[in-house]
């Protein structure tokens, strides 16, 4: 996302936050980080191969002896691995599971964003909210607007400040509640979306490095993230109205920043008749698509059900169809809105918006290229399997209850997020070891992903390295010109403590009571049993 505005120079920070800022600013771009990770991986693989590092394969036996197959770490500089690297490069890149998932969803989401559907839906949702319900309304709409990606940050957060100011409340309170919901509760949502496709795609690749064929269920975290939304909502409401607003006090318009006069800014104009008609048309398309998918699942002809599969696998076609469903549920309502509102004139405009969405994914393509090779090379070296088996044995010996292990994963992800902002970059590094290791302890790949998501999002709102942090600072300085980096961090810190605490409680309850994470997915799985292999 580009913005013509530049953030005002942040105040020099000392202490822990200053260390985070200085350390993070010295880190290279995530793309270059992956290049270094690959170099380090190659070096370790050579040393481990020479040392004879090995482990018993958890799911394969030697067909000759019947004993567990011994897997040795292979050097990535060996003849066979170098041949793989240099001859399979296109396949390694294009077969990276998250790539197709994310690009498919973004084709539709790009149209919904560029046609104005996302922004219009956000404004319409908050047009007539009373003062009492303002905070929960802004919070829930901000969390749901995560599906809108950039639009959630660029539209929803400054809009919340304007709404609060128009209601006679401090505008920074509105920015704070929306920032906490959009970014601090980044993984929380009522329905799966592009983030689920991205993270569970990486999970799929991680499982395949050790256990072979595996297809991720994009709805595998649905119940978990929906519960996060419902639990985070009262937490954000309480922190906003009982902690942040009393602390900020009454807004003083004399403190407003230079540039556009925040005092004269008013709520966005009421939707035009064309925009209202566009929203109605979009809603009808959403209802129609839901009805179609329901018919294809439970109707007399049900292609999204496999009647020959075991009971637990009969809905697998339905889960796999959710990617095209999300493509269409963004694309067609976006087109319908644009036609009615005048933002889409014909098919060329529609195709142009889809092309622009792909241009916006250029950086993600570059990141995916190096991440795909890191994950593939991890599998070729057998390092992931050996580390997973070794780590699983160590965790078993520790005697820690499973909930404590997953709490540790949540906290580790939260700490790492202070330095590396990209959710996909961190998960691409952690998943090849973490997911197989937990599977060997009987924890499902979906639960490992859910625990990571809790920690990954909570610290977004207190790290200056989050990509939108400078932009949020600009939004704040528009209302209060001396509002610095420390002021923003201090305002968001109570939200962080509330969100991370609630997330940890949800994780513990889910593990202790073994609740379903999504349709046909649970916390625990059977530990993969040994099968003949070679």
List keywords for this structure.
single chain; 534 residues; mainly alpha
What percentage of residues falls in helices of 4 or more residues? 55-70%
Mean pLDDT: 83
Q: What Rg is obtained from the alpha carbons, in whole angstroms?
A: 24 Å
Number of helices: 22
Going by helix content, strand content and strand pairing, the class is mainly alpha
Report the portion of residues in β strands.
Answer: under 5%
Shape: globular
Care to count the β-strands?
A: 3
What is the makeup of the main sheet?
3 strands, mixed
Structural topology:
Blueprint: H1 15-26, H2 30-51, E1 54-61, E2 68-72, H3 79-87, H4 89-94, H5 97-114, H6 117-126, H7 134-144, H8 150-166, H9 171-184, H10 194-211, H11 222-248, H12 273-298, H13 316-320, H14 322-341, H15 347-360, H16 362-381, H17 383-398, H18 402-417, H19 423-439, H20 445-458, H21 469-479, H22 485-513, E3 531-532
Parallel strand pairs: 1-3
Antiparallel strand pairs: 1-2
Helix pairs in contact: 2-16, 5-10, 5-14, 5-15, 6-8, 7-9, 7-11, 8-9, 9-11, 9-21, 9-22, 10-16, 10-19, 11-22, 12-14, 16-19, 17-19, 18-20, 18-22, 19-20, 20-22
How would you sum up this structure, described in words?
With 534 residues, this protein is mainly α. A hairpin with a 6-residue loop joins strand 1 and strand 2 (68-72). It is globular and about 75 Å long. 66% of the residues lie in helices and 3% in strands. The chain is built from 22 helices and 3 strands. The longest helix has 29 residues, at 485-513. The protein has a 3-stranded mixed β-sheet with strand order 2-1-3. Helix 5 (97-114) crosses helix 15 (347-360) and helix 17 (383-398) packs across helix 19 (423-439).
């Amino acid at each position: 996302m580009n913005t013509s505005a530049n953030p005002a120079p942040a105040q020099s920070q000392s202490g822990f936050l200053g260390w985070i800022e200085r350390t993070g600013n010295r880190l290279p771009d995530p793309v270059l980080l992956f290049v270094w990770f690959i170099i380090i991986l190659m070096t370790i693989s050579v040393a481990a191969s020479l040392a004879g590092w090995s482990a018993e394969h958890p799911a394969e036996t030697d067909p000759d002896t019947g004993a567990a197959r011994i897997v040795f770490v292979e050097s990535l500089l060996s003849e066979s691995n170098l041949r793989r690297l240099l001859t399979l490069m296109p396949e390694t890149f294009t077969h990276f599971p998250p790539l197709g998932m994310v690009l498919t969803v973004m084709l539709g989401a790009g149209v919904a964003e560029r046609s104005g559907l996302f922004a219009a839906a956000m404004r319409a949702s908050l047009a007539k909210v009373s003062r009492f319900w303002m905070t929960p309304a802004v919070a829930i709409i901000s969390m749901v607007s995560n599906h809108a990606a950039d639009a959630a940050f660029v539209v929803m957060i400054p809009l919340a400040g304007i709404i609060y100011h128009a209601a006679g409340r401090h505008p920074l309170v509105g920015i704070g509640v929306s920032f906490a919901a959009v970014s601090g509760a980044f993984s929380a949502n009522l329905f799966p979306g592009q983030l689920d496709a991205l993270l569970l795609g990486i999970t799929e690749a991680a499982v395949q490095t050790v256990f072979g064929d595996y297809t991720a269920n994009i709805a595998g975290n649905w119940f978990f993230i929906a519960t996060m939304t419902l639990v985070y909502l009262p937490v954000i409401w309480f922190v906003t109205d009982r902690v942040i607003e009393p602390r900020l006090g009454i807004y003083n318009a004399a403190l407003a920043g230079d540039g556009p006069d925040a005092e004269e800014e008013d709520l966005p104009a009421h939707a035009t008749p064309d925009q209202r008609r566009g929203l109605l048309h979009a809603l009808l398309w959403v209802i129609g698509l839901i009805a179609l998918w329901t018919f294809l699942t439970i109707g007399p002809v049900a292609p999204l059900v496999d009647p020959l599969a075991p009971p637990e696998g009969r809905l697998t076609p339905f889960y796999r169809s959710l990617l095209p469903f999300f493509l269409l549920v963004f694309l067609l309502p976006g087109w319908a809105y644009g036609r009615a509102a005048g933002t889409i004139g014909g098919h060329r405009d529609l195709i142009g918006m889809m092309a622009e969405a792909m241009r916006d994914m250029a950086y993600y393509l570059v990141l995916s290229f190096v991440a795909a090779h890191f994950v593939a090379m991890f599998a070729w070296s057998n390092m992931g399997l050996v580390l997973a088996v070794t780590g699983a044995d160590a965790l078993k010996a520790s005697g820690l209850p499973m909930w404590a292990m997953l709490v540790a994963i949540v906290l580790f992800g939260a700490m790492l997020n202070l330095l590396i902002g990209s959710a996909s970059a961190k998960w691409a590094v952690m998943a090849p070891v973490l997911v197989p290791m937990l599977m060997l302890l009987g924890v499902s790949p979906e639960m490992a992903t859910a625990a990571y998501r809790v920690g990954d999002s909570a610290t977004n709102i207190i790290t200056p390295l989050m990509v939108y942090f400078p932009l949020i600072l600009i939004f704040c300085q528009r209302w209060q010109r001396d509002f610095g980096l420390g002021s923003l961090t201090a305002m968001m810190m109570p939200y962080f403590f509330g969100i991370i605490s609630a997330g940890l409680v949800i994780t513990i309850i889910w593990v202790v009571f073994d609740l379903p994470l999504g349709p046909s997915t649970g916390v625990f799985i059977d530990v993969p049993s040994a099968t003949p292999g070679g």
